[in-house]
Design goal:
Layout (H helix, E strand, L loop, with lengths): L1 H12 L1 H16 L18 E3 L1 H27 L1 H4 L6 H7 L11 E8 L6 E7 L6 H9 L5 H6 L3 E2 L4 H14 L7 E6 L6 H13 L3 E6 L3 E3 L4 E3 L8 E4 L3 H6 L5 H8 L4 E3 L5 H4 L3 H5 L2 H4 L4 H10 L3 E3 L2 H9 L4 E5 L9 E2 L5 H11 L4 E5 L5 E4 L9 E12 L2 E10 L11 E3 L1 E4 L3
Parallel strand pairs: 1-19, 5-6, 5-9, 9-10
Antiparallel strand pairs: 2-3, 2-16, 4-19, 7-8, 11-14, 12-13, 12-14, 15-16, 16-17, 17-18
Length: 436
């Protein structure tokens, strides 16, 4: 893209100025809520991600098509025992999933992560984050920190920013209206706070309060159920609606620690945004379910072709599959079936033959999937704080979806085979160029 070439040329011609700019941005990040402590702070690069209006329309189309498929899968799960049998859920989780919310959207908030080729405009799915979707505040703050980016300030590109924080507040309130919740409702932002993206939760709490809504961040263990109301032990207020940030796996792994939350949800004494039906799409087995003949029967020919074209081949990591995975290591990535934040994810391309053999053998028959490795699109960028040269970075494009509608993009890059904070991830602002 022309603007990226202009950024590169400016950086090359103004190196000392650019390095100082990058150091300033890093310092600002370290002194903001994007610093979780110690060495755990957001890393970024000097060139933002620029997309065109054409890209924006493509993303909207991907979201619309994918969300329709999600709706069909969730409805089929509710109505068809044979579809339910395709998922490895416990009876307790199945019961929670079948509790229907009082609003119409099946997944209030999610992020569809894709490998998007900026030249061909083709893409492949990476994964579906429908549970505990996060990083909206990180996105917002990196956009704000563009005031310290010397190249951006010099070139002043004509851009549009798709804001993600306030937009989610509006979508959340629209969903509450669908559920006929009262205007003086009390909102609980709920998670295991020792595992949470805590500073983002407090940022949302502040935004709700700024709009004069009663809202608090509360640990899921600090809730009390009196048989009719779910009450915060922190404030003694009745919680009418929960913005659920706690992921389903953490809920199911800790049911003995959260009996009050569990009972209130079972008895439908609190509204959950989102309800546990989001787990149907969040669990990694969704890739196998989508291509199963029983599920395929629910889709149109267009939807079947869409899935076939964009979904990586996915299998259980079993003994029968192991030899194929070992002999073609660069073609595969392995992942736990139910996890988040790229925990326990390994790629053959980042491993030696011996490392890959050891890794695969360790995880075979242990609730892991093996998936076709999609080579990410690579683009040039630079980290002036730590390096003096441009290099190619792999791109991952996260499409936020609020109330079924495309809401914005989360752009992450890495110089390794996995794009995650555990593997040298960089997050950059995402900007849409306005048409001349």
């Amino acid at each position: 893209m022309k603007i990226e070439k202009q950024f590169k040329e400016y950086i090359q011609n103004h190196w000392d100025e650019t390095k100082q700019s990058a150091l300033t941005i890093t310092n600002v990040i370290q002194n903001s809520e994007l610093n979780a402590g110690g060495n755990n702070y957001t890393r970024t690069l000097q060139i933002p991600k620029f997309f065109s209006k054409e890209d924006q329309m493509i993303f909207k189309g991907i979201v619309n098509q994918t969300y329709k498929i999600f709706e069909k899968v969730i409805q089929a799960y509710r109505n068809d025992e044979k579809i339910r049998s395709l998922f490895p859920f416990s009876k307790e989780l199945e019961q929670l999933i079948l509790l229907e919310p009082d609003y119409s959207c099946v997944i209030p908030i999610c992020r569809i992560d894709i490998f998007y080729n900026e030249q061909t405009k083709d893409f492949h799915f990476c994964e579906f984050n429908t549970d505990g979707t996060s990083a909206m505040n990180e996105n917002r703050r990196l956009n704000e920190f563009l005031i310290y980016n010397n190249v951006f300030q010099a070139l002043k590109p004509d851009i549009e920013i798709m804001e993600l924080m306030q937009t989610w507040i509006h979508s959340f309130l629209d969903i509450c209206q669908q559920a006929h919740l009262k205007k003086d409702m009390h909102i609980g932002i709920v998670d295991f706070l020792d595992k949470a993206y805590l500073k983002e939760l407090y940022a949302f709490e502040q935004l709700f309060q700024n709009q004069l809504f009663s809202c608090e961040v509360v640990d899921i263990r600090d809730l009390y159920f009196d048989g009719n109301h779910l009450i915060s032990k922190k404030t003694n207020k009745i919680i009418d609606v929960i913005y659920r940030r706690v992921v389903t796996k953490d809920v199911m792994d800790n049911l003995d620690l959260i009996p009050d939350f569990y009972q209130a949800v079972q008895h439908k004494k609190v509204e959950l945004i989102g309800a546990f039906q989001t787990q149907i799409v969040h669990h990694k087995c969704i890739n196998q379910v989508l291509v199963h003949p029983l599920m395929q029967a629910y889709f149109t020919k267009e939807e079947q072709d869409f899935i076939q074209s964009h979904l990586p081949a996915t299998y259980d990591l079993t003994q029968d599959r192991m030899q194929e995975v070992l002999s073609n290591k660069n073609q595969w990535i392995i992942k736990p079936k139910d996890s988040y934040a790229s925990k326990g994810v390994f790629t053959g391309i980042d491993s030696t033959d011996e490392q890959w053999k050891e890794c695969v053998k360790k995880h075979v028959n242990h609730d892991y999937i093996v998936q076709e490795y999609i080579m990410p699109y690579k683009s040039e960028n630079i980290d002036p704080v730590n390096e003096n040269e441009f290099k190619l970075y792999s791109n991952l494009t996260g499409l936020y979806v609020y109330n079924g509608q495309f809401a914005g993009v989360y752009s992450r890059l890495s110089d390794s085979g996995i794009i995650s904070s555990q593997y040298n991830e960089k997050t950059i602002p995402t900007l849409f160029l306005k048409e001349k």
